[in-house]
Amino acid sequence: MADDKLRRQRLWKSMQQRGLQKFMHQRPGDFLRRAKKGIPAEYRAEVWKTALKADAHAKAGLYKELQMAENEFLHLIEIDIPRTFPEDPKFGPRQQESLFRILKAYANLCPDVGYCQGMNFIVGLLLLVAPSPSHLTVGGFFCVQETFWMFFSLMECSHLNGFYRRQFPLLKRPAMCWANLKSQKSRGFRRAGCGVACWLACIVCFQPGHLGYVGSTVHLCHRGAKLQTTTMLVRERRGTLLPKTTDVKTAGGERSKASSFASDGEKDARRLTSQIKKVLTPAELLGILDESVDAPYFNCFHVSAAYHRLAIFQRKGRLPSNYVDSAVLPKLHARVENMIKLRQMDARASANALWAMAVLLGAVPSATTLIPALLEDVLAEASRMTARHLSNCLWAAADMKDLVPDVLKIVPALVAHIPGKAGDMNCQDLSNCMWASAQLKDAAPDVLKSVPALAAQIPINTSGMFEQDLSNCLWASAHLKDLAPDVLKVVPELVAHIPGKAAEIMIPQGFSNCLWASAQLKDLAPDVLNVVPTLIAQIPSKAGDMNPQELSNCLWASAHLKDVAPDMLKVVPALGSQIPGKAVDMNAQELSNCLWASARLKDVAPDAVRVVPPLVAHIPGKAGQMIEKGLSQCRLALEELKDVAPEVLKIEPAIRARTPYVGETIHLCHRGAKLQTTTMLVRERRGTLLPKTTDVKTAGGERSKASSFASDGEKDARRLTSQIKKVLTPAELLGILDEAVDAPYFNCFHVSAAYHRLAIFQQSGSLPRNCAESTVLPRLNSQVENMLMLEQLDARATANVLWALAVLLGAVPLVTSLIHDLAQDVQDKASELNTHDLSNCLWASAKLKDVAPDVLNVVPALIAQIRGKAGDMIPQQLSNCLWASAHLKDDAPDVLDIVPALAAHIPRKASDMIPQALSNCLWASAHLKDDADVLNVVPALIAQIPGKAGDMIPQQLSNCLWASARLKDVAPDVLNVVPALIAQIPGKLGEMVPQELSNCLWASAHLKDDAPDVLDIVPALAAHIPRKASDMIPQQLSNCLWASAHLKEVAPDVLKVMPALVAQIPGKAGDMIPQQLSNCLWASARLKDVAPDVLKVVSALAARLPSRAVDMKPQGLSNCLWASAHLKDVAPDVLKVVPALLAQIPGKAGQMTEINLSQCRWAVEELKDVAPEVLKIEAALMARYLWAFEELLSTTLPELQQHFLKENLQHAVYLHQWFLTLFISSLPLPMVLVFWDAAWPVGSAKQLDRWEEGISLPVFEVSSTAVESGGSIQLIN
């Protein structure tokens, strides 16, 4: 400690010799870091003076002149002099005299501020910092002047005077910081529930586990008695108490020593920890917990140890099943949940508890009640976790993801820290992280970011790995090879060590995993084949202990490896002898894998055929659970095995039942005769026809072969289908339909083809406008309605027509009754639709919802099918569904249920997406960003977009840039696509429509700080927007004006758009919604100095705003009031909106953010002279501040809040005092000095400006030695 102090003094002496001002300017980072560690007392005054630039503001002789004059505040000053640091022996008569002189001089210099209680503590602190008392004598008179000019700099240049001016404009704002701190939920506050009140309110209530707080002083008024209590010191981040004697000073002045109970509590805590670690049975453990779980000394160490022991008992199979009914476990869960709420759990305890939950989940169902709270705590503590904790949490997330999907939300937080700590991981930690990454890659793609760091560490740690670690790493490498190719680097080292640890040590699962991985990796990492001989030698003897999945994997791998490792065939007989007895327990995938492998092995390993009969016996019952790949494997095996194992044909009906498009029945009504025609069978996904005889049942009931009629009708139908598909122009198509639409052979295929061709013409822009006047289309629509009524349209035709009508929207007359009938038919037949049709119908619903709301009725039926079929969708279909979900989320919220399924599959198929699909997905992700699942698709999209941006049309580029602006805060990686987009946009601006230009400018304003390159496109946008401003709708005009206000300083060319916008806005203000009006008024206030023409729009806006204020959101109201204050002198019409705003603000002040409140407070000060009624909202604003404090106090210190309520102590009584003295009178002086050392070197003006804006107060986390030694201090905002 002494060495550190001497070294710090040498550093500061060196800085002083070089010149503090020069050092601060040249090396600001080093200066700030050293200041935060504590400024030696002998240098503190000079450092503060330098940071405040007091010398720059000093004027020679002025201080003496100010001493000569009298003022009205002298009496108040004299009253407060003896109240300043009355118990501090260093603040004696000389300091009091200097305090009086400085306050008197300031009141004379700044009579608008004068003197207010609280200023005495600020000056008093500066005097205490002075180098020595001798400087305060006549010979040291200049030092008092220095103190005066330091105080002047604080008050006038750093705007601290706002706390003390008339009506206390700045004092009314700090309470807003409670709301800010409440919303921030910063780690500092989460680590200790009472932290906010401790540091900001100077009140500390001891609760076990509160961390990082050094004794503060509490001033409470209790029935006339003043109680001054120094709180106990709490060890930093440890949750244990340091013994501390507590003095209680009563009203009479007597002091008594409070008993020290910290040591007893610590002994009990240590004794309990030892007991838990030594227990040998679950019963013994539960007995100990039953007695201690509610004890005051029960802490996070006990939580960690208890859950760890329970998990170990479970892993060893020693946790009896009847322990589920134990009453102790719910008590333990409840205690832990309460500790989490009170922030009494540290990172280690939270990580260990979550790991244990994963182990216990199946055995202790009540554990699920605790998991949500644990997840929140893990999120908050991730940055504090060690390598082992991160590994355990990631493993737990992978293990619980299916039963507790919410666990996936912790993955990004863990992944953010794993790369930096991978070097500290041991062999098991690395293996667990790799295994978990493979398990989580689909559900949480962010996990892939940690793989390169893991892959870099595993090769140098393989020699210390156990056989299970090696097996897990190889298995994970096989799973991750496509998504994280870096993982292939670990294979050679794994392969080098597996043979030496496989013999007789590895369990069956390990052998199965290694063999399966070898089959998967053989092409990308051929070295993996070196482990196969060792595996082959051991598997036959371990096959009897393998479970169904392991047997299936081994047989599947044998089929894959037979050509590159022929010895693999030696294990087939052993596998073949075990599989028949375990086929009954196999799932659908395992059955299909075994059947496929048998077909592949039948010629080289005939024993494989022995497994076919038991597989055939179980496949029909599980075919319904098979995915397309499994069905495909079974169909292939059918063809391969039917000659050597004919019984395989028994599964054909079950497999064929899962095959789409196999014969359906069409009921047609033709001139009174009911025709029942069995449709032609369509080969699976091929579209080719099988000949089929058609029976005709006449009205009289006779049956005959409809050879002549059917063949003629069929020929006509086929000819018409061919004609429709071959047409080249819309006129040609309408001509064909004019002749055929009423023909008896016109059927659902023709309906589908006709509408499809019309839609294609519309998409290609070749459908003429006069098409809407054609008489053919009403006849076609009428025919479709009739066919729907007679149930003559199949599911696919209905879907195609609905999709086509959505494409044709606006080009042809809309028949809402037809859409209603189509939607009803789709709803009834949704289960018959394939993925293409489902995707099209959902897309059509999104397009048609505004003009035909009935279409929304079909959405629930569609999403019920999409959820289970998303895995079979091609990239375009996934893209369409995600785009539609974004459009439908407000009108049909159920659509959000399919987003997780879509988000799970899009990353794997993003590489195959065309530019339009990528653009749509990114646009939809921006709209759905509040759904955490959708953010998982963003990394895959941004990996593809840069390479395909050159092929994007203007709309796609505009959408991608807009989406990047929306996503930058929740998915910062999206900024990687911006350079590629802005490289393409300038060349395509001429083709952009008004909306695309508006979106690009809006996005540029949002991205200017995070992606400055975006400013390069602003001049080009500014050149094109004026030409198209007349075609812009109100939203686009509003966005452009708002963006111009944001860009005016960094891209002045944007001001070229102002004349065109100003010319259009007045005429369209009447159609603007409240948010657009608010944005325009706010932008006008920002632009008035650089583009005075903008003032021309104010009158039009002011005329519309009063009637729209009732529908405004809190932000809109605060923006308008702020803008009114700015515009009052140059555009007096704006004052017309103030009464309407004031009528709404009190009712919505409770929903305002800290920035909104700050804007309103500033506006009140500016408007009170020209619109005195503005003062009416002050009470509502102050109520919001106090409410925020009340909420924070109830969350962090509920007992103290109840005490205040009981004593009827109002917040205003003590809040003003705290803020007026900047806590100098409420915190121990050494602590105040440490705080100020950290605050002022940051730049006093910057710090106090933030207070004035009401954004944040500084919050500090101090080490337990800070007060005594000037130790390190961390500023947390």
UniProtKB/TrEMBL annotation:
Keyword ATP-binding: no
Residue ranges of the TM segments: 353-375, 1218-1240
Keyword terms, alphabetized: Membrane, Transmembrane, Transmembrane helix
Signal sequence interval, chain numbering: none
Positions of the Rab-GAP TBC domain: 38-382, 1032-1243
PANTHER family: GTPASE ACTIVATING PROTEIN AND CENTROSOME-ASSOCIATED, ISOFORM B, RAB GTPASE-ACTIVATING PROTEIN 1-LIKE
The protein, known as: Rab-GAP TBC domain-containing protein
Species: Durusdinium trenchii
